[in-house]
Amino acid sequence: MPLADYLEALLPSYESLIEISMRLGEALLVLIAGLAAVLFVRSLSRRLTAARILDETSVSPFYRLSRDLIVLITVMISFYIVTGSRFIIILIAVLLAAILLATWDLLMNMAAYYAIIITRIVSRDEYIIMPNGVRGWVRDIRPLFVIVETKYGVYHVPNSMMLRLGVLTKRERSYYRLTVRVWGLPSQQLIDNVRDALDNVVNTLLPEDERSAVMKRVIIDEISEDSATVRIIVGMPHTEPKPERLADFVERLSRRLQEHGINHSITLEEQEGYEQRWGATLG
């Protein structure tokens, strides 16, 4: 066989080279489009975080899931363009259906999460009552569920259920923020007395059916053998943070600590900058 005929049989024809080049070019364009889509999702995630619409922990799952799906689909489409195999199309459809079925609840809850955040159906530190009987304070809103603290314990309500059932009642609350320094007794006894005094004040200020709606947090800032400094955050339903109401709350707390024989100083700082101090040194 002449060398020219041998090379012609061995090498692809000019038309074949053009077709292969076009397919490779189309596959490259698909890969570039996939990369652009990933970069767009990444940019969108950063903008949502910068605008404080979503936090970093919420954006991260959305970005990773979107990126992985885009990469998978882009690679398979590129492979189909190069090979021309219809099996790839069937495989893509089967994989997408399997992913959709396996992650349906996950996707629904994530979609509901962004709907809750953007529309502000519920927000952190709000008291809610749902038609299914769950009532309490919204502690946090996660990508998959809403954490609701009730008098019976903490419930993790799926985001999709929150949207489907809706919020029957939503009540705002005002915050009392206090810094309490106590001394003169063992530190654990001091902290227990602060908690007891706080419970007593709340019980005297509110009727029984409203007490479960109060948010109470006692955060230990400093502690030593015979002294402690704690921050108290109290969320009171159906109240306005007026100075006289705040003063009454702290005066009651101060009197209760005096009844326990506790040396104390209390600083109340309200969001609008209202500040006043109470205290008593006994013995």
Furnish the topology, listing elements before pairings:
Blueprint: H1 3-10, H2 14-50, H3 56-83, H4 86-102, H5 104-119, E1 127-129, E2 135-141, E3 145-150, E4 153-158, H6 159-165, E5 169-171, E6 173-183, H7 187-205, H8 208-211, E7 215-223, E8 227-237, H9 243-259, E9 263-269, E10 275-280
Antiparallel strand pairs: 1-2, 1-5, 2-3, 3-4, 6-8, 6-9, 7-8, 9-10
Helix pairs in contact: 2-3, 3-4, 4-5, 5-6, 7-9
Organism: Aeropyrum pernix
Transmembrane segments: 20-41, 62-81, 87-107
Keywords: Membrane, Transmembrane, Transmembrane helix
Which term fits the overall shape?
elongated
CATH class of the largest domain: Alpha Beta
Radius of gyration: 31 Å
Task: Give the name of the CATH architecture of the largest domain.
Answer: 2-Layer Sandwich
SS elements, strand count: 10
Percentage beta strand: 15-25%
Share of helix, binned: 40-55%
Count of folded domains = 3
Oligomer: single chain
Mind summarizing the main beta sheet? 5 strands, antiparallel
Ranges where pLDDT stays below 50 over 5 or more residues in a row are: 270-283
CATH topology of the largest domain: Alpha-Beta Plaits
Strand order of the largest sheet: 4-3-2-1-5
> How are helices and strands ordered from N to C?
HHHHHEEEEHEEHHEEHEE
Number of helices: 9
Please report the distance between the alpha carbons of the first and last residues: 118 Å
Question: If you average the pLDDT, what whole number results?
Answer: 75
Backbone structural class:
alpha+beta
